[in-house]
Amino acid sequence: MANSSPASFLTQANAILRKNLTYQKRNIWSNVRLIMIPFYLCVVLVCIQALFDSQVNKSLDNQCGCKCIHKTGAEKCQMVCGVEYSTREQGVFCAIPKPQPWPPLILIPLPRYGAVDSNLTDVSCKQRNNCPVTILLTGRNQSLGATLSRNLLRRSFAMNYSDLLFSLADNVLATTYKGSPTNYLDAGIVSDRFIYNLQPRCTQNSNFSFSIGQPPLNFTKETRCVQGLNLWRNSSREINNEIFRGYYKGNPEGMINEFVAAYDLLDTNRTNFNVNIWYNATYLDDSGNRPPKLLRVPRLVNLVSNAYLQYLKVPRTKIVFEFVKEMPKPETKLRLDIASLIGAVFFTWVILLLFPVILTSLVYEKQQRLRIIMKMHGLGDGPYWMISYAYFLAISTLYVICLMIFGSAIGLKFFLLNDYSLHFVFYFLYINLQISIAFLASSAFSKVETASVVAYIYVFGSGLLGWFLFQFLIEELSFPRHWIFVMELYPGFSLFRGLYEFSQYAFQGNLTGRDGMKWKDLSNSSMDEVFYIIIVEWFFLLISAYYMDKMSSSGKGLLFYLKNPFEKFLSPQSPSLQNQVSAVSVEMDKLDVIQESEKVEKLMSERKTSHAIVCHKMKKVYSGRDGNPPKIAVQGLSLAVPSGECFGMLGPNGAGKTSFINMMTGLVKPTSGSAFVQGFDICMDMDRVYTSMGVCPQHDLLWETLSGREHLLFYGRLKNLKDSDLDQAVEESLRSVNLLRGGVADKPAGKYSGGMKRRLSVAISLIGSPKVVYMDEPSTGLDPASRMNLWTVIKRAKTNTAIILTTHSMEEAEFLCDRLGIFVDGRLQCIGNPKELKGRYGGSYVLTMTTAPEHEKDVEMLVQEVSPNAKKLYHIAGTQKFEIPKEEVRISQVFQAVEKAKRSFKVFAWGLADTTLEDVFIKVARSGQDFNVFS
Q1: Count of H helices and E strands in the chain?
Q2: Which ranges of 410-419 would DSSP assign to H, the alpha helix?
Q3: pLDDT tens column, 768-821
Q4: Residue spans of alpha helices (H) in 783-855
Q5: What is the 3-state secondary structure (H, E, C) of 697-741?
Q6: For the domain with range 843-914, which CATH number is right: 3.30.70.920, 3.40.50.2000, 3.40.50.10140, 3.20.20.80?
Q7: Which of 343, 393, 401, 739 could form a disulfide with 414 if both were Cys (CB 3.0 to 4.6 A apart)?
Q8: Is the CA virtual torsion 443, 446, 448, 452 positive or negative?
Q9: What string of DSSP letters covers 26-90?
Q10: Three-state SS at 267
Q11: d(CA 431, CA 397)
């Protein structure tokens, strides 16, 4: 049953949604395998973490040390663990209920890097390793600065070993060790070979030794005196310049003048104590990290504070900085989450693996021309984009939700510590961007294989570049941050950056026992920057993808609005030659073609017409390539096809039939001329033309996994058929093309034979009773019985439909077509019904006679007697064929002549036939080609 109104937006959306869901149902196991990919990779990460835990986190070297204590008379021993049984590296993991107090130390440079004499010119101390420890001072009151400088370091001391820490507090002890994450075993005391004692001037008794700690963690340290040099500078700018020039840049041979510290006394006086302190916070430890420096800073504050108290002339008043120590702590364990550290590259690959799936799906529809065949049957761009986008978004969202569920279920800290909502929002934004990229990239590919290779190179290349290049640049603080922003404009790097931030927060959270990333950390982690980039790119690329799709579907180039101003001067033919050819063609045009052109001209002047198809002087020229001249495929075609007529297009290969069909179906735009279908211009209103059009292409364009019934349901919905009308139309279509037997209608189309696919394609083109149908060789590959049945269906369908049919079967053309047009080299050579064409171009009989070879001359003489103008078409092995003009002979004369010949010599076989449509086709085709060569 036909529905005159076109399908609405929602009806089209419903049709493609149902088709996609059915297609997805057919590919359920492919979806399951896709969803399981995150699970497999999460399991790989868990295995890597388990291996790392067994070899590193739970290694004996990374635990509190233990010792086997034998009991008297027992064979077994008891394991006792504690800091006293640990190495210095293991001690940090032990329970320390009573931390060891350590004398406060300041950080000094290595002797070979220290500043030189007071003029900073004598570098000989660097070879002797006895350069002074230099402290710079400045302020507004130089006399005050000189006083504080004299009071900064003590000139003499007396050791009291009964109260060791109190005695050491009177000395300025220093170390070259930068500090460690904790002070339970101070690296300056435990690991440094010497402890340095700063004095204004070193004497012979300036060195001393002391023992600290309880057995077995007791240490005897030798202190060596090093001169403390206090230098005044006139401004903080001078100090800043000297400190910067003395900054150690990793070149041992350079002229380094490092300083211990610098004090800016500002406006300090007797009633106001105001000081700024410089200290070196740029050192890196062996692993490239910046260890804590604040453990060494309090002693610097204590020095200047005591100097100020002495300046106030209260010599016996001082702040005794006796020791530093940590708070008590329980036993800890090494918790390095390697899965989080490498999770950035792993989950980059996991998320990006959706990209090849989406891209190949889009390119597959393009390669198999499924997109264009859907459009030809009335599917608009709006419903296609909305449903396709929502379809891929739903699959991608389910994918990332499963990723989060799998990762959390198997215990990955990457998911457990970071906020789930932050995870989801980040993934949701990125999969939208990824879908937009896939839509945009699909316009650049025409083959699935090429698109798949490029997509997987993008996937794995992005992960590897992110890991080995982008991550290195992020962590290199000297690399300009604005270039990091530029690199994040590449979608693969923006994804990696977000996952990198998640991994760092998860790693640190697991290490310290805190939570990972929360929404409040967004701005501190650069995630807000990544969010902005993804949102802007998503919007921009989605618009670009839609624009590119419209350009490719309309057949226009990206810069279609730019015209070549010299195009008319670059024509392969001069105007005079073109005029000559046009004049010749007009003179030699056949009367029937002229009449058709006049009819079209009259229809073009009318506002309304009953003709479903009207073509007016259509022309298609393909531009020349590789030095070849332009190819004229269709030359000034004028044609009118009323509703209820089947018009057959005949012609040799390359005659222009396919180019004409492609123009009428919107695949290519005509170079000039116009055409109207149901009153709509194919150049301006093709979307409205599609709503009343059906197409049976030369090659079957079907989904391999959808059944015949599901194909017809989909295209029936596009034709606005609903409910019982739709079911009835589908059943009638299946029955008419003989696809209801044996359950064939519900089998996947991929299992159909070639003939069954052809019948299904014809049924698709006719469902919904479209007003115009184009059929390109519809009966190709069918057996005689199926072909006759199909012809009957087509003949019944043309009642209210205009059908344009191309075929190479003359039998099919005679059976189906009300009128025929023969195309040769882009021109319509003749037009009319089959009987008229045979009468116009077939004014002769064909006589065939077979005799013995020695009687061939007798046969020729016999034919010449009957018709002097007869032409011999061919002869072979005694068989000869002659063309006899009808006006010269009657059929009875031929019979009498043959009977006379039988009495003279033996005639094995003979026959007289009228001209066939095939003879007309060959004759017209040859004459048309001869004309084109001449012209």
Answers
A1: 33, 24
A2: 413-416
A3: 888 899 998 888 878 888 888 888 888 888 888 899 998 888 888 888 888 888
A4: 784-797, 810-816, 834-841
A5: CCCCCCCCCCEHHHHHHHHHHHCCCCHHHHHHHHHHHHHHCCCCH
A6: 3.30.70.920
A7: 343
A8: negative
A9: HTHHHHHHHHHHHHHHHHHHHHHHHHHIIIIIT-GGGS--EEEEEPTT-SSEEEEESGGGS-TTT
A10: coil
A11: 8
By three-state DSSP, how is residue 272 classified?
strand
CA distance 397 to 399: 5
Distance CA 392, CA 371 (A): 16
21 φ/ψ angles, rounded to the nearest 5 degrees: -65, -40
- Asked whether the beta carbons of 380 and 12 are under 8 A apart, the reply is yes
The domain spans of the chain are 9-46+339-554, 95-311, 575-831, 843-914
Taking the CA atoms of the chain, what radius of gyration do you get in angstroms? 47
Positive or negative torsion for Cα 865, 866, 871, 877: negative
For the cut 60, the answer to whether the pLDDT of residue 827 exceeds it is yes
Place of tokens 């064409």: 837
Are 277 and 296 in contact, with CB atoms under 8 Å apart?
no
User: Whole-angstrom Cα distance, residue 442 to residue 427?
Assistant: 22
| Segment 389-393 long-range contacts (CB within 8 Å, at least 24 positions apart) | 389/435, 389/439, 391/17, 391/20, 392/358, 392/361, 392/435, 392/438, 393/431, 393/432, 393/435
What is the reported pTM? 0.69
Q: What does the CA dihedral 519, 524, 529, 534 come to, rounded to 10 degrees?
A: -40
Using CB atoms within 10 Å of the CB of residue 204, give its burial: 0 to 12 exposed, 13 to 18 middle, 19+ buried.
exposed
The answer to whether 289 and 179 have CB atoms below 8 angstroms apart is: no
Q: Which amino acid belongs to residue 230?
A: N
Instruction: Report the alpha-carbon distance of residue 495 to residue 489 in Å, rounded.
Output: 10
Q: Which two tokens stand for residue 258?
A: 């490092």
Closest C-alpha among 455, 477, 137, 181 to residue 303: 137
Residues sharing a CB contact under 8 Å with residue 41, sequence separation 6 or more, in sequence order? 346, 347, 349, 350
Q: What tokens were used for 72?
A: 């008297």
Output the CATH code of domain 575-831: 3.40.50.300
pLDDT (tens digit per residue) in 27-74? 788 878 887 888 888 888 888 888 888 888 778 778 888 877 765 555
Residues near 344 by beta carbon (within 8 Å), at least 6 away in sequence: 466, 467, 471, 496, 499, 500, 502, 503
Residue type, 163: D
Q: Cis omega before residue 216 (within 30°)?
A: yes
Contact status, residue 461 vs residue 370, Cβ threshold 8 Å: no
